[in-house]
Amino acid sequence: MKIQYKIMLFFILGAAIIIGLLAYFFLLYSNSVITGRINAQLDSVITLKENQFYSFMISQSEETKKLAGSKVITDYMRKFRGPNIVESSINHTLEEESEQEIANAINDRISNSYILSTSIITLDGVVDFSTRENSGGTIKSDEKYFIEGLKGGYIQSFYYNIETQQFSITIAYPIIDGNRTVLGVLADDLNLSTINDIMAERTGLGNTGETLLVNNFNLLVTKSRFLDDVIYKKVINTKAVTQCLKGNSGRIQAKDYRGKDALIRFEWLPEYNTCMLAKIDQSEAFLPIQNLRNIILLTIIGAAILAILMSWALSRSIVIPIIKLVDETKEFAKGNFSKRVDICTKDELQILGDAFNNAGVALADAKSLEQEYNKKLNIDIDIKTKELQARMEDLEKVRVAALNMMEDLTESNKHLKDLDQSKTDFLNIASHELKTPLTAISAYIEILDDYKGQFNEQQLQGLDAIKRNSNQLKILINNILEISRLESGRFEINSNGIDPAVKITNILNNLRILSDNKHLELKSELNPVPKIMTDEMRFEEILNNLVGNAIKFTDKGSITVKLERNDDSIIVSVTDTGVGIAEDKIKNLYQNFYQIDSSISRKYGGTGLGLAITKKMIELQGGKISVTSVFGKGSTFRFTLPMNPKDNNQDKDKQ
Amino acid sequence: MNNINKINNMNKINRSSLRKKLSGQTNTAFTVLICFALIVVISGCNNPANLQHTPPKSLENVNLQLKWYHQAQFAGNYVAVEKGFYADKGFNVTITQLSPSASYIDAVVSGKALFGIAGADEIMIARQKGIPIKAIAVIYKINPVCAYALKSSGIKKPQDFINKTVGLEKSGNVQYLYAVMMSKLHINRSQIKEVPIGYDASELINGTVDVGTGYVINEPQSAKEEGYDVNTILAAEYGADIYADVLFTTDTTINEQPEMVGRFVQATLEGWQYSIENAQEAVNMTLLYDKKNSRVHEEYMLQQSIPLIHTGESPLGWMDAVKWENGQNILYTQGLLNKTLDVQEYYTNTFVESIYPNNKG
Q1: Nearest residue, CB atoms, A139 vs list B184, B273, B356
Q2: What predicted TM-score, i.e. pTM, was given to this entire model?
């Protein structure tokens, strides 16, 4: 939430709470003050009216009592109406005089007082004399005031008088003679208007206050301020009346007989079996509070407005500088360090603003430094980049040259290959062409050989020479064919399992003749080696070639053939103590037709194909051949062969 | 960079929790306000004034048998029906007026009607004959029997009847109450010519009699309506007083359904209280039943009746043992009863007492 609203919220809440509490307690206090005042008012009204009512009733009682005890009446009753008086003995003249006297007295009395009518009732309940014309002769023996009036002073309050056809209060006193004998009852009917006037008086009761009397049968016996024509008719069962009729006096805030909320003070008047009520409407009673409440409400609203304004001003003074700072920060974030803020609130925010401005200055400086550095860097980079480019160009040239070379090489390689191929083809064709006539020669040699007995020595020598040379030619041609086949790839490698030691021994045995002739020792060192899968025939050829060469190029000493195992291959080495090979000639050793020099063929014979074939045969079976030699001392030819060659041409596995 | 993110996140959390708190507070405030409003509205609706007429679901059908034809004499009952006082207490009441053929007491005894209106004297006489009925509330506490004479005749009190012709209505309590009145006043009836008359003022008006008798609530008004002013002499003023109309039912009903009886009594008395306070309305409702008499007649009748019903000396309907005893004495001395019983045989005040728990008479 924005600071602005936070501040305003706190201000308003704070103001509201404070004022709310103040208002609450103040209203509470006012409420109790007003209630106290109203209660006091109602109390005084009740006291006043109670006094008025009582003094009226008491003074009236006194009047009745006085009359009942007056000489004129007691004399009359004794003389003319006593219990033992006989009708016939009455002096009617005196009687009439007395009656007249009484009438005068009573009538005067009535005109000056609150009495509606006075009656004298004899012991049998008959109205002997009454100021009311039609009362005379009526019988009151069942009336409570008569029955009780015989015993003593009695007030019958608020009952319906059938004679007068209205509600009455009757005060009755016994008429007693000197001997305490009861002669009759004197009854005064009161004028209830006095009582109504007392109750109708409303000073101090405002606009909604009234006082009422309710009799012990819940009957309203005085006028209502608000409802017409309810006197002597309405039955009131409100809480206040119910409480009061139980004999209680007190006060209550409850609904009155109209259903309106009122403060009601009730007083039980036990002597008259009547309840007096003084009441005032709550709405009127608490009107001052209502006004107060309204004033407080206005005050609250005013305070709220004030709180809003003040908090708004305060929050603005804080928020605006902050927003300025935020803007400045945003500009800085964009890299624009020239923005400055102008905060003159003379508080911490101003200090903050100055700090921000200073930061801006520092940042601007830093930025320009950085820019310079960047410039330098860029220049460097340019230079280096140019250099790099030059180098790149050189490299490119080299690359192009290399590419050209590659092309040339490829060309020449191809050329060489073609040459090699044509060489091989030539060999093939040539030896094949050579073989054919040779076969013929061999055949004729055989024929001639049969005629050997007929030849002379010269012819025999000649035949020998022919045999020897044709054999040599045959061997040469076979070799040539062999190498040509090997090189052109038209060969078959057969794999059988052979025991190399056995083979070597056999071959040595076969060649011993040659070594013996040269007085050379032919040794073998054969370590145990398992059978190997190899081309049997070619294995023999290899050994023949190597051992043969060794014998050929060794004049004295020995030739040793060593056999050993190396993991999954065998190593065969042929060591001689012959002429050796010069270092620089080793590399050309395996080339076709190569002889160290041309003198070798003269001296040692051979076509120079043997090693080439041997190398090829070894390599085709997955082996390697190598030579170590010291010129003049001897040579060792070593070759390896795998025991289980993986050859691509055939997939036999005769293990 | 990370610090800024952290701060942002914290802000977000603070903001959202404050928002939640505020919205929580707002929600609470709203809820409270709405509940408060609802309470105010509901309590407004539950005003006692509005609660008056919520009648129970099914009403019991009850027949009330009157002792005469429909008139304001029975206003309280009409009001209790029309204002729904009976309905509120669970009754759908049919008010049956006198039928010339059948006795109203028989109607109640036989069960045709559950309740009836009869005179207290009739109750006592019937009871002594073994008919099991009892009064449960008194309507007319002061007897309406009266004598009346034209004002012009100057006859104002019973003593004036001597040497005059007095018309006595045949049935009802006129006969014996007249006799009691005369005897209490020690008036020699041989000096009076007593003749039977009908139930209206015609004989007085046409001069057949000097004094008529009847009910103060009725006959004198008839004369007045004819244009004749009258003096009325209420028998009760001369010690000839006995309860008049009472509400009664059978012993069985009282014993077996006391709660129901109590409700009926209460509703009936409510009808009478309403009539006392609202006489005009009561007259209107009476006129719904009584199609014969005029409004003026009903107004007079009600106006004269109320003081006899509402005496201010005891609650409506309240019965006094003393009054029953006095009444029994009158009947006994007049030879209408063979014996005197404990008056509790004739009535029970328990139902009325339950309505006014604060009164003990």
Answers
A1: B184
A2: 0.61
